[in-house]
């Protein structure tokens, strides 16, 4: 497997497009997963190489300005072997595209709920200074994580609007190509030379994405779908051409709005209307911003759920309310009709007039019926009395339905994209839902925060909620709060005494709960490695000076890990445990009884170096070189006395030296440690030869 940046081992490709690919990567020490975006410059001229690199740097800059739990953090950026890499948070879950392809389209109410959340996320980007336009919203870039939260990934097309009017003019065809806007979801202005780009661009893309969620097909206006209408040559857009065809096999080449293939009447009158405005070709006819789009979706969602609840509870009488709901929906939608043609408004007036004429005919019919005689009067009185009683019953039923709907609306209707299948029909369930959301909130805050004390506070609150959920038989205990604290603390490759104290306090507080997790022993292995490689005193760098203390502190964690670590990690845990024990025994050689088995230690040392050769993490490599040099410098005489062959000792020395030489680190601390190894090489080989020389014995 390929390793980049000295520590990111690429496990497999997550996706690709244009000149970039995204890989799942793992930290070899802590098994922390990242998504690594690799941009290739092969077969490109110097101008395009510079532009692509500039585009990736711009993406990094945009993400560095964001602080939102649904937007991945950028944690590293570097260039290596003619390629540029950006490392971001890895979102475990499925894309909206995958969900639709595998499970089919989703219900209109769920589409509205998803749209509301995406509106809120886009509104955050648009509210930044300068505002950020995402530009490439599509189902494959919308991730539903395993904890059911919604995320946006791939900001390669994002742009900052630095103009005074909040729009950006297309700078050139090639720059348009560099953003890789996706045909079938991107707004028409992205394909028009010199057109303006703004918040309205994201409004269109969101409408197209929600259309796909409803129908399983892409939407694009026929005037923009024909090849002849495209105002550019394929040769000018070599890298764009791979995205020119629609993303999905079942997509129609042309799909006007009038062809909504929806059987649900509510969709036709509600969701269809909302999306129609978002997908207007003219940006001025779309929603002004995502806040207005969100409000339209909320109104539609309220109509949908209100009707479903009443129809479910009232049976046939619900049809009456359904008609009223449709009328109310029509009135609500009138406020969005300012931009529609006068012809359409006139048509609405004519239809309304026809309805009024019909009502007058009905009224006259009733009056004529009254004149027919006393029998008809008696029937009318009875009907009126029955209607009055029915209205009273109906009013109480509606009050109950509306109250329940208002309480459960957000959590229930957002269940597709938020908190899974947790019910909210009673107080206990509502409390559980609240606890789940609070847990996610604190974990998200811990991941985003850079304040060590705040992180400790957040993971403590998250762990407390997790214990509560475990005791309520809602979800199993996870090591994630502890692992989140550990990862945050050692991201700078230093684990200070104060940080270790905070971590130890946290683990001791929840140890009995953490041990209930099936991943407890994996956590122990990670903690042991963190002590081994990163443990330092406050304000000092990791070095061989405090190695004994680091190994002593790691020993108990490796010992605990060996009690139940998974098979794939057992050999690693055993190697660290036995090597650490041998090292500590040799440091106390003169006092040790019985004497340590030096020959056995030499074998473990040799295996440790071989393991480090296979590991691409530069911290692992330099640490292995240092521990070999320290051991050979201190105990060469003991190796000889215990019958270790000189050739074996010198082979261990050569391997450790080669390991150090192979490092070309940009980390100042690692570079200094490499220089220290190189300066010790000649004196150490002389010391080994003297130790094994008979005259020097």
UniProtKB/TrEMBL annotation:
<keyword id="KW-0418">Kinase</keyword>
<dbReference type="Pfam" id="PF00069">
    <property type="entry name" value="Pkinase"/>
</dbReference>
<dbReference type="GO" id="GO:0005524">
    <property type="term" value="F:ATP binding"/>
</dbReference>
<keyword id="KW-0547">Nucleotide-binding</keyword>
<dbReference type="InterPro" id="IPR011009">
    <property type="entry name" value="Kinase-like_dom_sf"/>
</dbReference>
<keyword id="KW-1133">Transmembrane helix</keyword>
<keyword id="KW-0472">Membrane</keyword>
<feature type="transmembrane region" description="Helical">
    <location>
        <begin position="377"/>
        <end position="397"/>
    </location>
</feature>
<feature type="domain" description="Protein kinase">
    <location>
        <begin position="8"/>
        <end position="298"/>
    </location>
</feature>
<dbReference type="InterPro" id="IPR008271">
    <property type="entry name" value="Ser/Thr_kinase_AS"/>
</dbReference>
<keyword id="KW-0067">ATP-binding</keyword>
<protein>
    <recommendedName>
        <fullName>non-specific serine/threonine protein kinase</fullName>
        <ecNumber>2.7.11.1</ecNumber>
    </recommendedName>
</protein>
<dbReference type="InterPro" id="IPR000719">
    <property type="entry name" value="Prot_kinase_dom"/>
</dbReference>
<keyword id="KW-0812">Transmembrane</keyword>
<dbReference type="InterPro" id="IPR017441">
    <property type="entry name" value="Protein_kinase_ATP_BS"/>
</dbReference>
<keyword id="KW-0723">Serine/threonine-protein kinase</keyword>
<feature type="binding site">
    <location>
        <position position="37"/>
    </location>
    <ligand>
        <name>ATP</name>
    </ligand>
</feature>
<dbReference type="GO" id="GO:0004674">
    <property type="term" value="F:protein serine/threonine kinase activity"/>
</dbReference>
<keyword id="KW-0808">Transferase</keyword>
């Amino acid at each position: 497997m390929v390793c980049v940046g000295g520590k990111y081992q690429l496990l497999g490709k997550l996706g690709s497009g244009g000149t970039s690919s995204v890989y799942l990567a793992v930290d070899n020490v802590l098994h922390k997963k990242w998504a690594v975006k690799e941009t290739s410059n092969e077969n490109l001229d110097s101008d395009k190489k510079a532009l692509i690199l500039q585009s990736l740097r711009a993406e990094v800059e945009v993400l560095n300005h964001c602080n939102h739990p649904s937007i991945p953090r950028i944690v590293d950026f570097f260039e290596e072997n003619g390629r540029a890499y950006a490392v971001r948070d890895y979102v475990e879950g499925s894309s909206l595209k995958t969900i639709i392809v595998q499970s089919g389209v989703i219900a209109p109410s769920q589409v509205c709920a998803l749209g509301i959340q995406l509106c809120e996320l886009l509104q955050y980007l648009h509210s930044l200074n300068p505002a950020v336009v995402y530009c490439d919203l599509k189902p494959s870039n919308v991730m539903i994580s395993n904890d059911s939260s919604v995320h946006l990934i791939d900001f390669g097309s994002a742009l900052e609007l630095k103009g005074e009017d909040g729009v950006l003019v297309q700078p050139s065809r090639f720059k348009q190509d560099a953003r890789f806007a996706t045909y079938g979801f991107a707004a028409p202005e992205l394909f028009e030379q010199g057109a303006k780009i703004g918040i309205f661009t994201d409004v269109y893309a969101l409408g197209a994405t929600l259309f796909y969620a409803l129908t399983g097909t892409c939407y694009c206006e026929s005037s923009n779908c024909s090849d002849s209408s495209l105002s550019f040559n394929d040769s000018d857009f070599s890298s764009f051409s791979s995205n020119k065809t629609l993303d999905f096999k079942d997509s129609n080449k042309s799909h006007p709005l009038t062809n909504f293939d929806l059987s649900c009447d509510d969709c036709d009158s509600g969701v269809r209307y909302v999306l129609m405005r978002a997908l207007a070709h003219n940006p001025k006819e779309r929603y002004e911003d995502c806040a207005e789009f969100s409000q339209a979706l909320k109104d539609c969602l309220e109509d949908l759920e209100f009707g479903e609840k009443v129809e479910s509870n009232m049976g046939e009488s619900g049809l009456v309310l359904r008609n009223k709901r449709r009328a109310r929906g029509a009135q609500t939608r009138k406020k969005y009709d300012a931009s529609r043609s006068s012809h359409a408004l006139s048509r609405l007036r004519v239809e309304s007039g026809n309805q009024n004429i019909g009502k007058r005919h009905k009224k006259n019919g009733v009056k004529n019926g009254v004149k027919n005689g006393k029998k008809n009067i008696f029937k009318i009185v009875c009907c009126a009395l029955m209607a009055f009683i029915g209205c009273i019953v109906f009013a109480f039923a509606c009050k109950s339905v509306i109250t329940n709907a208002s309480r459960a609306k957000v959590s229930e209707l957002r269940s597709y994209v938020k908190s899974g299948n947790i019910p909210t029909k009673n107080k206990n369930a509502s409390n559980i839902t609240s606890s789940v959301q609070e847990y996610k909130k604190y974990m998200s805050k811990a991941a985003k925060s850079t304040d060590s004390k705040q992180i400790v506070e957040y993971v403590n609150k998250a762990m407390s909620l997790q214990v509560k959920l475990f005791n309520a038989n809602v979800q199993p205990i996870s090591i994630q709060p502890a692992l989140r604290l550990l990862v945050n603390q050692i991201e700078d490759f230093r684990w200070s005494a104060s940080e270790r104290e905070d971590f130890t306090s946290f683990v001791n507080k929840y140890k009995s709960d953490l041990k209930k997790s099936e991943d407890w022993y994996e956590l122990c292995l990670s903690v042991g490695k963190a002590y081994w490689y990163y443990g330092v005193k406050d304000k000092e760098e990791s070095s061989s000076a405090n190695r004994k203390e680091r190994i002593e502190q790691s020993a108990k964690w490796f010992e605990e890990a060996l009690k139940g670590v998974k098979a794939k990690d057992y050999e690693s845990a055993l190697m660290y445990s036995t090597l650490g024990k041998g090292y500590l025994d040799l440091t106390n050689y003169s006092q040790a009884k019985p004497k340590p088995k030096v020959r056995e230690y030499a074998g473990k040392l040799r295996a440790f170096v071989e393991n480090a050769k296979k590991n691409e993490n530069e911290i692992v490599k330099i640490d292995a070189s240092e521990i070999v040099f320290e051991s050979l410098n201190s105990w060469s005489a003991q190796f000889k006395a215990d019958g270790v062959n000189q050739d074996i000792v010198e082979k261990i020395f050569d391997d450790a030296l080669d390991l150090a030489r192979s490092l070309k680190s940009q980390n100042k601390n690692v570079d200094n440690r490499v220089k220290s190894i190189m300066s010790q090489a000649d004196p150490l080989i002389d010391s080994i030869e003297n130790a094994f020389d008979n005259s020097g014995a």
